[in-house]
Amino acid sequence: MRVISWNIQWGRGADGVVNLSRIIDIIGALGPADVICLQEVATGFDGLPGGTGEDGLSVLSTAFDEYVAIHGPAVDMPRGDGRRRTFGNLLLSRLPVAAVYRHLLPSPPERGVMSMSRGCIEAVVMSAQGVPVRVLTTHLEYYAPGQRLAQARWLHARQAVVARLAGFPPLEREKAGPFARPEMPVAAVLCGDFNCEPDTLDWQAIVDVRDSESPWCDAWRLRHGDTPHPPSVGLHGADWPDRPYCCDYMFVSRPLAAAVSDVFYDAVTDASDHQPVVIDLDLSLLV
Length: 287
Prior knowledge:
The protein has a single domain (2-286), classed as Deoxyribonuclease I, Chain A, CATH 3.60.10. Helices cover 18% and strands 30% of the residues. The chain has helices at 20-30, 56-63, 145-165, 201-207, 219-224; strands at 2-7, 35-43, 68-78, 84-93, 97-104, 119-126, 132-139, 188-193, 216-218, 248-253, 260-265, 277-281. A six-stranded mixed beta sheet has the order 3-4-2-1-12-11. It has a six-stranded mixed beta sheet with strand order 5-6-7-8-10-9. β3 and β4 form a beta hairpin. α3 (145-165) runs parallel beside α4.
């Protein structure tokens, strides 16, 4: 199973031009992908640099019409013409999709600090090998460090909750109707733009290096050991940041650790201010 994660900056390249066709072409070249996880998908936001209010959701969903499109905007507000403006995450899956959750992440207020509502899409997909896998994609807060840390801790706790839930037999009333408990496999991929560098407090809050049984592992380190993460921002002269570094990751739950066959970053494209991240999983090892 191949999963691609990419903060597309609403389609704005390092040249300052919004061009969603470039995004679509790059994703196609990195494929074939089973699941595509995109951050900063914008619809109807006229004021974004380089843009004219493009309907990113419609353009991307149409381009990948053989995929199930799961939209998870963290920002949703009126546009003024009867339509909505949205900004957030998009998960595209060409695998069958079971349960889907759209989470708003915690955002404890910080006086005098700008911040944005942040979300996480969580979807259960059924692989070709018949192995169900949860895929989560998110984009953590950039400006407010307290919010980012709270969100990182939430992602750690979410996986721990699912692991505990797996040990609970369903109650009779949880077998049908809206109370029915969907299949929630512990095997999971967590990807996105986490707005923190490796080994920082926020990164550690997800992986929790103090806990040998931490529910998340950094997939890059599973595959590449002590080799530093490649930069995922700052490579192509965009208007930020002032230096290249990594803040985009693939994490996997412990049951998937042995299935990680490759993790790589596309350092060539300048179609966004971020670089795509790709993970390949050999799920036959779990059958």
